[in-house]
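Researcher: Structure for this, please.
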Amino acid sequence: MHNDIKTPIILPVSKVEQPIGEFYVGTMDARTLTEISYTEIRAFIDGKQDTIAGIQRERSKKRIDEIKKYVNLDYATFPTSIIIAVAPECTRLVNYDPEMTQEEAQEFFETEEEQIDEDAHMFNLLLNSYGNEEDDDADEGQTTYIPVEKIAFIIDGQHRVAGLEALEDGKKFDVNISVFVGASEADKAEIFARVNQAQTKVNQSLVVDLASYYEERGPVKFAHEVVLAMNSDIDGPFHDKVKRLGKADPGKGRVQTLAQATVVKPIVDYITSDPEAERNKRYKGIFGSRRKPNAWQRFIFQPFYDEEDDDGLFLCLTNYFDAVKARWPEVWDNAPAGTVLNRTTGYAALIKFLRPVYLHYCNEPGQILTRKDCDKVFAKINIDAEDINREEYLPGSSGIGKLYRKMMGDMDWKP
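Model: Predicted structure, token format:
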């Protein structure tokens, strides 16, 4: 038993009735949940395909690491429920008593179950370990021992629970939970499949656009607002080029060629490798940041962010892409079919090429990259407009890399 978890756990809950059956919703301290829960990855038993068990997908270390950082931010939230299943042997449902002690709760596991008020809206759901470890030698299929750390089987939410294990000392974090008592393997599988199958991947341009509502001005909001300004600049290279929310306006498919997230994300990457941490500083009212003296050479737009210099970043990007537009005007403005310059492949290669251009002409942090210097660069790029197409530069990382290396080679710079 985990010495820091006091059992029985007293969980005030409400009962929910749905076609699949009854379950209970409540809140639990995150640390308690991490200590009493476990999961089973669906996999072959003994490596044989004819024997398989578990319902969960494999855990993603990358996703867990991201959540571990996120849960310690000052604006972290998990408003949707983590779904768990608990064996009947580990539970008692009793009438709601906000003053119930653990000694009183333990008595319910030692006596016959209490008659409960079926018309009530609130109950106490008591969770406890079951049996003794030394008695765990019964026949297969008969449960004789369930330790504290296996009270709750995670049906959905394993990555969030794993991330919450990194919660800093002293930080309060309650989570919503939905508890199924005595759920069969079929029920667990049905719940997991439906919850995850019904989920639609969130449009990343929508995520970026929602940054407009943030009170604190983190890197995403900063970059997003600069991109919106460029998109609205009638005389600028990005005028009406950006598909806000990732969707082109009717009839503008050859004009609005760049998704909002496609444009904003690389700019954010030039500000910081950890936009959430930077946003969290602003959330806490921390505006001054100590940077390493040469940090700006990797994060060329970080000084503009630190100084909230929207105009400076706007000018750097406008001057650079104005030079691109002047070099290949016939494929920048109208985006003929098959061309990639002002689509994802071309933009990604150009924004990657921006950093060596900036560092070649700018010797100090926060310096404005001039249009004149950008024109010098693109005058040396020996690529004809008709050759910037999807056959020559395939969509994806290979085409992006090929175009970037071509531009670097024409400048006699090492990629």
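Researcher: Any notable elements?
Model: The CA atoms of residues 77 and 205 lie 21 Å apart. The chain has 16 helices and 14 strands.
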